Amino acid sequence: MSPASNAPAVAAVDWGTTRMRVWLIDKDGKVLAERRGDDGLITAQQKGFSALLEGHLAAMGAPDALPVIICGMAGSRQGWLEAPYVSVPSPIGAILGGAARVPGQSRDIRIVPGLAQRLADAPDVMRGEETQLAGAGLPAKGRQLVCMPGTHSKWVLVEDGAVAGFGTWPTGELFSVLAAHSILRHSLGEHPKPVTADNPFFRRWCETALAEGGDVTSKLFSIRAAGLLQDLRPDDAAACLSGLLIGGEIASANRRYDAGAVPVVLIASGSLATLYGEALGLAGLGVRTVDADEAVRAGLVEAARENGMIARIGVAR
Amino acid sequence: MSPASNAPAVAAVDWGTTRMRVWLIDKDGKVLAERRGDDGLITAQQKGFSALLEGHLAAMGAPDALPVIICGMAGSRQGWLEAPYVSVPSPIGAILGGAARVPGQSRDIRIVPGLAQRLADAPDVMRGEETQLAGAGLPAKGRQLVCMPGTHSKWVLVEDGAVAGFGTWPTGELFSVLAAHSILRHSLGEHPKPVTADNPFFRRWCETALAEGGDVTSKLFSIRAAGLLQDLRPDDAAACLSGLLIGGEIASANRRYDAGAVPVVLIASGSLATLYGEALGLAGLGVRTVDADEAVRAGLVEAARENGMIARIGVAR
């Protein structure tokens, strides 16, 4: 007899720099339980990866022998076990299939590799986003341009189910670092409200950045000057900076990869999905949005399958 | 009888955010004495502008009635006295002539105004650089593009002796903030060596940024990836970041102002003069370098003259 469909078949873990998420998943790919914590890579380096993971699994009532599939920074050199980068170009399935097994554990624990683009003039790496990509339900044929916004936004060119190339725009990090540590902190204030896509300053500065083809450095100081000369308010200054950086990212990525007539696949959740959706529209690009949380879960299930940790057959996508 | 030419006629002060420089200058514009201190705007806000200035003047043996001409952030809203911005376009002489007199002082102390560009889509301000510009010995006729690199690099378009427009590229600040607070701190290390213009990484990344037309953000993460994939060393990572940001600034400014066939006037000293000289050359632009220290002193003398603090006649430029 096969196990009941509400019994967990695998634990799926998205383990990033600052947070982790754990899902118990049944043999059909259905989520049975979820936990989220702030114990990302940085905490785990101090408290131990195994202890943290086992603590979460015990709290969720996971069986002792339940296998675990992990993606994200836990697989970096500073992580639990380095899961060596797969070089692109590479079929997406082949990336997931190469998960590295953590030695000396009582259960079967594997970490999905990241991707490396070993080009002399455009070296790049990703960890975690390859799993989102695998779970985004991309068609097996044709050319897709995928945008995964965040601290380090990734744009991926997928051709016939294989990663042809990718790039990183550190948009989220630039926003945080400039807001906290540059002269713009005087303009944005200490706690600007979250930026919303209907803020006219977001839209206007996004359009400016799009028109400038990704040149954002020439406009940064204008946000400060607008505070001095035009009484720009802190919340609107934050919207200017957000619009400028997101618009600049889209202009630059579109210049590199040329989205063309096919909609950009936007893998994002929450306010990032809204802001990027708006900005892509301002750039005149079509958008198909995929929820980022669902994508990473689906990608982890796919990885568990590719590594033989759960059965391939009879499983819903 | 006129005073001996080795008697001080005016004290000239360049008072910035983090440092100040004081020169005693005779009626012919010759420097008699110089002092430099770390007591810029931030220190002065605590210790008092008058006390700090009088301390420097006393240490230099300046007479009690010696007039003082000041440029820089001491004239900002957070400074000693706000010297209101002059709006551009404006003839350079007219800017200097509007120095604001500090009230309640026993001596004649005046602060040169800054410049404001009140354009809806390109608001900008400068304080201090207008004085360098006035002291750069620009021709009274023709079109000049002037580059004043620094924390907030200024590019100024001068037409027939008047400021037609200007822009700010926060290149020095971006370097500092990214080196200290972004993921690139792992690549550059804690104390990278000062970047030199003969570092091949500086040159290569400068050329990349020039080719990308000022799009810098798409390349930032590649410095991190080159550390992971290509064993890029910390000092060379610093050279990459410097080359990328300076090349991006030049590409962007040249796109906005079009230097054309006339050499760019580079007002700079020390290593910045060397790095920007090299980068402007890589961009295929001619360069005429003016020493920044000499320019600000000459500009302050010019300002003292324009405000009637020293005689106009018989004064060497």
Textual characterization of the structure:
The structure is a homodimer of 317-residue chains. Chain A folds into two domains: 8-137 and 295-306, 2-keto-3-deoxy-galactonokinase, substrate binding domain (Nucleotidyltransferase, domain 5, 2-Layer Sandwich), CATH 3.30.420; 170-285, 2-keto-3-deoxy-galactonokinase, C-terminal domain (Nucleotidyltransferase, domain 5), CATH 3.30.420.310. Helix content of chain A is 38%, strand content 23%. Chain A contains eleven helices and 15 strands. A six-stranded mixed beta sheet of chain A has the order 3-2-1-4-8-7, covered by helices on one side. In chain A, strands 6-13-12-11-14-15 form a six-stranded mixed beta sheet. In chain A, strands 5-9-10 form a three-stranded mixed beta sheet, with no helix packed on it. In chain A, helix 7 (200-211) packs parallel to helix 9, helix 8 (217-229) packs antiparallel against helix 9 and helix 9 crosses helix 10 (270-282). Chain A is globular and about 65 Å long. Chain A starts with 7 loop residues before the first strand and ends in an 11-residue tail after the last helix. The interface between A and B is large, with 50 and 50 residues.
